[in-house]
Amino acid sequence: MPMPEHYFELQMLLDQYARMIDEDRLEEWVELFTPDGRYEIISRENLAQGFALPLMLCENRNQIADRVMSLREANVYHIHTDRHILSQLHVQSTADGWRVGANYALFQTNQVGVSTLYSVGRYEDLIREVDGRLLFVSKRVIVDTAAVPSLLATPI
Amino acid sequence: MSPHDYQWPKADCTRIPYGMYRDPDVYTLEQEKIFQGPVWNYLALEAEIPNVGDFRTIEVGDIPVIVNRARDGKVHAFVNRCAHRGATVQRLIHGNAKSHVCCYHHWGYNLEGNLVGVPFARGVEGKGGLPEDFDKKEHCLRKMRVETLNGVIFGTFAQALEPLEEFLDTTFVNQLKRLFNRPIKILGYQRQRIHGNWKLYTDNLRDPNHGGLLHMFQITFGIARLNQTGGAMVDKKARHNMSWAAQDMGKNNSDAEYSTPRENNNLTLKDGSLLQYRKEFPDAYNLTIASIFPNCIFQQIGNTLAVRQIRTKSVGEFEIFWTFYGYTDDDTSMDQHRLRLSNLVGPGGLVSMEDGEAIEIVHRAIAADEDKHAFVEFGGRGPVGDQDNLVTEAPMRGFWMHYCELMGITPGADAHANA
């Protein structure tokens, strides 16, 4: 049974997660995952039909770091600012760790101040305490917005 | 303005008026002359509708279409718009149905698109209902002619059109037989909404020159190899294009060698599994992107196999609908490998995401100058044939020459001579 302080600590982690993306601190964002941490973005449309095809899949923290390095060094994408809005958390205590769910809305704003709703969906996370720090063992982003506007570069 | 009023200074389409990408009147005419014209449109894959009654609702240009398997075991396709008052008949994007019934007034159609049920056709107690001469046979859903090749479904609205294999021509028939050489399984879908004209994407696909310049992932992390050879092949009318790259046949094709970074480049991925290629075809091609006029692409990028269908939304917006697949005899390890490599392509693809940005920055920047022209001379001028290198955009011109033919435009002629 999660206690209020657990909610608070998990809330802090989710807040850090969103803030590091919104503030373009992606190298620090990578460090919120365990070394074997998995990051997956998949559409609800595929999940509902039993298809495993993701929009983005990183099977460990090295692959997450590679994504970020590729964004920094190689990829060309729309110049924008991200802004996450997260819901209250749904928290379950399991033998594997904390199962945490949250709804998100992600707005993107371009250089001349036009904002659009980029993606809406749900996080389904497995979070565990490692050396006194809460980290993502896996984070699955289930996007309702299966029709990705423009392209998918920065993480959701 | 009228699609025929634009200036095409060169007969070989080395200049393309920007208005072709921005003008709503051009878009309206394309719906008739291109998507409902003498072309075979890609519809779906048979593996998506294996059983009687299985259906998918898709779009051909702006036209909503139901593709399903009827009781005769064959694939049928017809317009998903009720013959009564124009409502969408089948509202789900996929499923299994015994018939398709419009929710508005319950007109029911069988799996071949024939009208089979009209409630209250004779009214109630002799009052109301339809006139006595109403004939169900005259109110079918508009049917497409359908042909399949190795499980790939194509359809056309054209009354007279060469058979599918003739339309595709040898190179592209062989490519489909190569990609669909044995039963496939669907891995899932991706959708990408791009805020630009759909032809900026068909251009992009026929411009292998941008690959090593815009998509820097390959160069930065060593996917594009120095010993890689490539080029482009076209059909007899140069309307279709297949960009290809192959590994050197004389070299060892091991994973280790494939992931060797380029010389003078210190950047390496921490996890190279994304760069592994498992040879699965008897030939040396490790990249083939076959673009069929007008609306589809069959891609093999390493071990990612997918079909992309272009779905127009407006003159300034389209969707790329990606259908990823593998083979039914793939083992668990190959399944996982294909899912891992899907990171390379699609809206979030490490070697493809840039296309969305490239199209949008063109579409935005040309808005004010519809009478100005794009310059298309990489690969030379004149007639378009096979290309023996990747520093070319000539296949783009092949698309445009055929496009102009269908649209009733004569490039190089005085604008007023067009009609």
Automatic annotation (TrEMBL), chain A:
Family of this protein: Belongs to the bacterial ring-hydroxylating dioxygenase beta subunit family.
Native source species: Pseudomonas typographi
Superkingdom of the organism of origin: Bacteria
Name assigned to this protein: Aromatic-ring-hydroxylating dioxygenase subunit beta
Coiled-coil zones: none
Gene Ontology MF terms: dioxygenase activity
Protein keywords: Aromatic hydrocarbons catabolism, Dioxygenase, Oxidoreductase
